[in-house]
Amino acid sequence: MARLRRGSDRANHAGRVKLYDTTLRDGMGGSGMSLSVGEKLKVVQALDELGVQFIEAGFPSSNPKEAELFARLAEMRLQNATIAAFGMTRRRGVAAADDEALATLLGSFAPVVCLVGKSWGLHLEKVIKVSAEENLAMIADSIALCRERGKRPVFDAEHFFDGYRDDDAYALECARAAAEAGAENVTLCDTNGGSLPGFVGEATAAVVAALGDGVEVGIHTHDDAGCAVANSLAAVEAGARLVQGTVNGYGERCGNANLATILPALQLKMGFEAVSAEQLARLTQTSHYLDELCNMKPNPDQPYVGRNAFAHKAGMHAAGVEADARTFEHLDPAEVGNAREILASELSGKATIRSQAEQAGLELDEAAAVHAVEELKQREHRGYHYEAAPASFQLLLRREAGSYEPLFELESFKVLVEKRADGAIETEATIKVRVDGRRYVRVAEGNGPVNALDAALRGAIADRYPHLADIELTNYKVRILDESHGTGAITRVLLDSSDGEREWGTIGVSENIIEASWEALVDSLEYAFQPR
Ligand SMILES: [Zn+2]
After folding, report:
1. How far is the CA of 81 from the centre of ligand 1 (A)?
2. 101 class by beta-carbon count within 10 Å (0-12 exposed, 13-18 middle, 19+ buried)
3. What's the distance, CA 219 to chain centroid?
4. 99: CA distance to ligand 1 center in Å?
5. Ligand 1 geometric centre to CA of 144 (Å)
6. Residue 221 alpha carbon to ligand 1 centre in Å
7. Is the N or C terminus of the chain more exposed, i.e. has fewer CB atoms within 10 Å?
């Protein structure tokens, strides 16, 4: 018998499976998910670098936020991904060409158009009140119009598995209607998320057999039964060749299928090719970065990419891993860009930090690198995460390298917040700093403590640093790290800044929200003045 690679349960399949990320559409239904246009573009950039083939950006409506997103996406140069716009099949009783929402979709620049449509009688009867025949016509007309207008249509068969369970012949007819009208892909959706892998595999195999080679079949699952990943993989086993989902499984209720789990399984265990080995090695970094952008706490126990995924307790496991990693690890963490905790971490940590310093044009000697790794570990323990705050990370390296120069010396600051009986709130900050031996005292008002502090600090040092006027704080995010402590918990602040030319992120961590904000603010301004 041929020897299989570690963690692999199958001989190599031939072929490709494409990834279709829907973070910006389905993922936004997740609790607490909210992204600005700028953050959405960062998500797109990160997914493109990971090698994802399709990125669903949402419905290109004329509301200002969506319009701006699509306008900026149209100008973005992506290496791997194609943008998909998302909408619905035509309304009942209207010709596809007269349907306004379809017209909006067709008017967008997105080459791929994903149309969701019904495939379950219960929904036809109870929700949209449309006959089975009319529904088939709605699917076929809409897909055909997309083709006619030069788009690449994907059909999302909503509630497909519930429909198939109810009436398999009709569910198949819906899939066939889309395929025959020219869909490039027919994606089967487990919209309610309650199906189990055996059934999903069986139903998918039936669709693949019924539709033949002319059309690709995709899978879109939700995690309500804890099986979204397993269901996606079962569908691929049964012949699906496109997987929809979200990195980290963002999505409403229990979330969408987690592409960060699916991708390594497809590639390292099932032998499919989805992205390159180099792209796969960006997986951990991408997963953590998206969590930071979405203001989510990275799950330390997440498969493949969690901080604990390859952490071994000292003792027998650690000794086993040292003797032969296969004893307690299902794959080499480096393949997914993760690292073994204990043992090798010291070494690899040092090498990584030195190469990061080099990239920033800094030189770290051996002793400084050891100290930097230690400092980083302690800071991470206190709640610092540098994935979304590379500017603060660079300042940390600068301090370690001994080439850090502070912009100013703080003597003190004071923030007063006054709330009056009539509801008015006033905030005032006073700051005392020294720059090159001269003392500056400034007072400023603001619409909140951080804003007032920012204004006072800028007022104090603006004469010395006129470029400060170009720097704008573009995003301010706060997260409570240890929720069990209520208002006494640790607060993490992430700040994005821009000078119109570049953008950078900084971080502050403290039990005091003003102190955490101050730290991120000072890093932000100092970063802008570091030599490049
Ligand atoms: Zn969904």
Report:
1. 20
2. middle
3. 20
4. 23
5. 23
6. 7
7. N
345 to each of 322, 353, 358, 373, how far by Cα in Å? Answer: 12, 12, 20, 10
Q: Ligand 1 centre and the CA of 71: distance in Å? A: 25
From ligand 1's centre to the CA of 332, what distance in Å? Answer: 32
Cα-to-centroid distance, 222 and ligand 1 (Å): 6
Q: Which tokens in the block code for residue 473?
A: 């704080």
Cα distance between the two ends of the chain: 57
Distance 220 CA to ligand 1 centre (A): 6
Burial (CB < 10 A; 0-12, 13-18, 19+), residue 296, is middle
At 286 the three-state DSSP class reads helix
| Residue 170: both structure tokens together | 């009709």
Cα-to-centroid distance, 280 and ligand 1 (Å): 24
pTM of the model: 0.76
CA of 304 to the centre of ligand 1 (A): 23
| CA of 116 relative to ligand 1 center, distance in Å | 10
The pLDDT profile of the chain, 532 residues, written as one tens digit per residue, is 334 455 454 445 568 999 999 999 999 988 889 899 999 999 999 999 999 999 999 999 878 889 999 999 999 999 999 999 999 999 999 999 999 999 999 999 999 999 999 999 888 888 888 999 999 999 999 999 999 999 999 999 999 999 999 999 999 999 999 999 999 999 999 999 999 999 999 999 999 999 998 899 999 999 999 999 999 999 999 999 999 999 999 999 999 999 999 999 999 999 999 999 999 999 999 999 999 899 888 898 999 999 888 876 545 566 666 677 777 789 999 999 998 764 334 445 777 788 778 888 898 888 998 899 888 888 888 888 887 888 999 999 999 999 888 999 999 999 999 999 999 999 999 999 999 889 999 999 999 999 999 999 999 999 889 888 899 998 899 988 876 666 668 999 999 999 888 889 999 999 999 999 999 999 999 999 887 7
State in Å: Cα 526 to ligand 1 middle. 43
Residue 246 CA, ligand 1 centroid: distance in Å: 10
How remote is the CA of residue 169 from the centroid of ligand 1, in Å?
A: 23
Distance in Å, CA 192 to ligand 1 centroid:
8
- Kindly provide the b/e burial profile for residues 212-234, where b requires at least 16 CB atoms within 10 angstroms of the residue's own CB: eeebbbbbbbbbbbebbbbbbbb
Which of helix, strand or coil describes residue 91? coil
What is the Å distance from ligand 1's center to 196 Cα? 16
97 residue type, one letter: A
Q: Which amino acid is residue 48, in one-letter code?
A: D
Distance 239 CA to ligand 1 centre (A): 20
